């Protein structure tokens, strides 16, 4: 399972770099300074959590608790879709109604890092 997530993490990093370049070189003149800031925040968190997926995949090979690392990766992926995805769409389309979705992605990121910490420290939930 972690090998699959390592591949997903690599593709997510590729997309983060491509989307960042697209934003800087194509979108910026068309969507304005405020919207490009929102877009860049999406890229920033996308990249950090793409690296998080790769890190959790590697940690499985060093004895981290596999079940929690899989959950960490699921939560990181969910966070990228909800947090970064909503910011990308808001920046490009102006759809402000997506705003309440963004914090759900942030909660997914936080829960993912908690699962990661529990997995690598060997701490139980109780």
From TrEMBL:
<feature type="transmembrane region" description="Helical">
    <location>
        <begin position="101"/>
        <end position="120"/>
    </location>
</feature>
<dbReference type="GO" id="GO:0005886">
    <property type="term" value="C:plasma membrane"/>
</dbReference>
<protein>
    <submittedName>
        <fullName>DUF423 domain-containing protein</fullName>
    </submittedName>
</protein>
<keyword id="KW-0472">Membrane</keyword>
<dbReference type="Pfam" id="PF04241">
    <property type="entry name" value="DUF423"/>
</dbReference>
<keyword id="KW-1133">Transmembrane helix</keyword>
<comment type="similarity">
    <text>Belongs to the UPF0382 family.</text>
</comment>
<keyword id="KW-0812">Transmembrane</keyword>
<feature type="transmembrane region" description="Helical">
    <location>
        <begin position="44"/>
        <end position="63"/>
    </location>
</feature>
<feature type="transmembrane region" description="Helical">
    <location>
        <begin position="75"/>
        <end position="95"/>
    </location>
</feature>
<dbReference type="InterPro" id="IPR006696">
    <property type="entry name" value="DUF423"/>
</dbReference>
């Amino acid at each position: 399972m972690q090998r699959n997530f390592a591949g997903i993490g690599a593709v997510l990093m590729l997309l983060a770099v491509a989307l960042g370049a697209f934003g800087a070189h194509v979108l910026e003149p068309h969507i304005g300074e405020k919207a490009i800031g929102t877009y860049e925040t999406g890229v920033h968190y996308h990249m950090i959590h793409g690296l998080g997926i790769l890190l959790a995949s590697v940690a499985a090979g060093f004895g981290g608790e596999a079940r929690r690392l899989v959950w960490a990766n699921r939560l990181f992926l969910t966070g990228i879709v909800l947090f970064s995805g909503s910011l990308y769409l808001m920046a490009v389309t102006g759809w402000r109604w997506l705003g309440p979705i963004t914090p759900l992605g942030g909660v997914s990121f936080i829960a993912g890092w908690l699962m990661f910490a529990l997995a690598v420290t060997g701490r139980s939930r109780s």
